[in-house]
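For practice. Any example?
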Amino acid sequence: MKNTEAMLEALIEAQKAFDNNEVPVGCVIIKDGEIIARAHNQKENHQQACSHAEILAIKQANTKLNNWRLNDCTLVVTLEPCMMCAGAIQQSRISNVVFGLSDEKFGAYGGCFDSNIIKGFNHYPYITSGILSEQSQHLLQSFFQLKRKK
């Protein structure tokens, strides 16, 4: 599965978040060309700060593979992962991270800071950014415009 195809699937998840009054971020995890996990933000629904799309997808992939290690997996997410999610990505040994839109306020792979340049970790995922970023940006801007109107 190509990065663009996977990002379209992540955008479907982001739309689910939007429809449920959650910040529209969606994520899929790919292994051997197949989606093994998919999730979207659910912080409001769960009332838990850790219910980011990436964390929920990682938990799902761990269960699917019956393994905490997600070597040779690619995490595809519509918005650059935050520090918490970058930590979970490193801890789970995800090989590749693909994201759409950079996040200057919270992004941990170059938007706010770059966790991949911190020395001493035993794992550094390969990062690809900017995939369908316009679609991710449009969804996020639409969501926050609606919020401001209320």
